[in-house]
Amino acid sequence: MSNYCPDCGCKVYNGHCVNCHEETYIAQQNADNDEPCAMSKEFWDKVAKQQIEAHERRQGYLRS
Ligand SMILES: [Zn+2]
What we know:
By secondary structure, the protein is mostly helical.
């Protein structure tokens, strides 16, 4: 599995690019906080899309 995003070259953690999947990354950081902030519905919509995208990327990496 590549550690760098094929789209932008940023670091990738477990299929998540810190740039393309910024909301997912923020959500993970936030979940690690002692007192997580409330996020908007739009934010979680983006996170849900990015989860699917990251999953597809992981599948793609496995094939290549
Ligand atoms: Zn990227």
